[in-house]
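User: Please run a holo structure prediction.
Assistant: Happy to. Please share the sequence and the ligand.
User: Here you go; the ligand is zinc ion.
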Amino acid sequence: MSYKCKICGFIHEGAIPDGYYCPICKTTLFDFEKIEEEPRKNNKEKKKSE
Ligand SMILES: [Zn+2]
């Protein structure tokens, strides 16, 4: 999971700690948006235990 700064586009990887601010533009975490990983399309093709 990553967070992207809506102001400058900086991407912070991992969880955002309390009191975090953007190292580039100094905005607060409220201007970060969560980036969800793209859902992988599984064709319900789970590997069965061999
Ligand atoms: Zn920023």
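Residues 5, 7-8, 10, 22, 24-25, 27 surround zinc ion (CB under 6 Å).
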